[in-house]
Amino acid sequence: MTLNLTELEAVVADMQKVLIDSSFLDFRQLDEFNGIMALQTANGIKNIRFSASLRLSRIHFTKSRPPAAKGPTGYAFEGKMFRELKEMRLKEIKTAFGDRVVIIRFSNDSYDRKLIFECSGHHPNLFLTDEHEEVIGLLVPSHSKKRLLKIGRRYTKPLAREKAITEAFRFAPGSGKGDLSARIEAAYKELEAKEASALKAVEVRNGLAELLERIKRTNQQLREQGQDVQSALEHAAKVELALRAVLEGQPNAVEQGEKILEAERAKKVERPKARHRRFETRSGLPILVAADEQDNQVLLFETAKDDDLWFQVESGAGAHVILQNARKDLPFEELLDAALLAVFFSKEHESREAPVLCTHKRNIRLDQKGRQPGAIRLLRTQTFKIRPDPVRMKRLLSSEKGARA
C-alpha cells in the first residue's frame, strides 16, 4: 500500500502549515530505502519520514528522530544531503505533475536545491537536484527503463497516467489515534510488521527445505556405507513435520521452525577452507580470485575487508575478485588488473568487451530474498567496460603465487 494522491495532498497541506522557512538540520538513512530528515521550525524540531520501499512508499511527519551517527554509514546519499542542504531553508513544498510526486525546495542566498519524492509507480525514490534540476543524489539506484534518472542527468517527471484514477482517502479522522501523520505511521507499522512476518516465514520455509534435502543426502550416504540411519530418519521426520506446519500456516510454526534452524546452526561444523588464487598488480598489491561458487562466499564475507575493492562481471557468471589494500588514490592501472582477472575467470572471457562491476566490500549485502544461494545486493557500484589485453593478462597470470590464500 502506497499513499495515493488524495492522501499525499493532505499530508503536504499539513506540512505547508509548519515547515515553510524552516532550516535543514540533518538527514539519516535507516536503511537503503528509508530516511528521516530533521528540520528546525519556529515551534521546534520536526522530523519527516521518507520511505521508498516498494509497496510501502510514503512521506509523513514522524516522532522518531534521525538515528545518532556512530561513524561512517556507507550511504553516499546521506552525506550528499547533509553537504548540499546544510544551512539552507525550506521555501516551498507542494505536490507536482498531478501525480504522487512531492517537491521540496530549499534555498540560500546563492542557489536552490530540490528534493523530489516520487511515491508513484514501481520505482519510488527520493532525488536531490540542483538549481538546473540535474540529479546530484538519489536514495535508491533507479531501475526505470523509460526514464534515465542518474547523477548528472536532468530530472524528468513520471510518465502521465493513461487513465484518471479515483482514490479514496483512507486516513480520515476516526480511522486511528492522533493527527494525519500519526494515523499513517501507525497503519504502515502494522503493514511492515505483516511483511516482515511473511518474509520470515519464507526464510524459515526455505531453510527447512534445504535442511531436509541435506539430511536426505546424508541418509543415502549412510545407507551406502551400511551404517545405522535410524537417528537421521527421526531427524528428517521432525524437520519435515515442521516444514509442513509452516506451509500450512499453523500457529507458532515459524517460531518452531526457527528454533530447529538455530539448533542446526549451533552445531559444530567445519568452516569452508579458503582456496582463493592470489595474483599481484604491477605495484605488488594482492588480487584474490575465488576458486568456485562456495569460495566466492568465503572470499567476499570472510576474507575481504570493508575497504577492499570487489569486482565481478555484470552478468554474475564469474568469480568474485578482491583487490586488497585499495587506497583512495589508487591508479586506474591497478583497477584494470583486477577487472581483467574478473573477466578472465568468467563466462565472458572470450567477449570482445565485457562490463565489470566494482565497489567497496562495505557496499555489498547478502540478499536474503535472492532466489539463488549466495545472491548479493549492491548498495552502490560503478561499471568498467573491459576489452582483452593479452600482454597484461600474461603478466598477471605469471604473478600468481604458488600457495593459495
N- to C-terminal separation?
A: 49 Å
| CATH architect. name of the largest domain | Roll
* CATH superfamily annotation of the largest domain: ibrinogen binding protein from staphylococcus aureus domain
Category from helices, strands and their pairing: alpha+beta
Tally of separate domains:
3
Low-confidence stretches: none
Helicity, as a percent range: 25-40%
Basic shape: flat
CATH domain fold name of the largest domain: ibrinogen binding protein from staphylococcus aureus fold
Major pleated sheet: 6 strands, antiparallel
Q: Tell me the number of helical segments per DSSP (H or I, 4 or more residues long).
A: 8
Please compute the radius of gyration using only Cα atoms. Answer: 26 Å
Mean pLDDT: 87
Number of strands: 17
Beta-strand proportion = 15-25%
Give the C-level CATH assignment of the largest domain.
Mainly Beta
Strand order of the largest sheet: 10-11-13-12-14-17
N-to-C SSE string, H for helix and E for strand: HEEEEHEEEEEHHHEEHEEHEEEEH
Describe the model.
With 405 residues, the protein is α+β, with helices and mostly antiparallel strands. It contains eight helices and 17 strands. A six-stranded antiparallel β-sheet has the order 10-11-13-12-14-17, with helices on both faces. The protein has a five-stranded antiparallel β-sheet with strand order 5-6-7-8-9, with helices on one face. Helix 3 packs antiparallel against helix 4 (230-247) and helix 3 packs across helix 5. The model has no long low-confidence stretch (mean pLDDT 87).
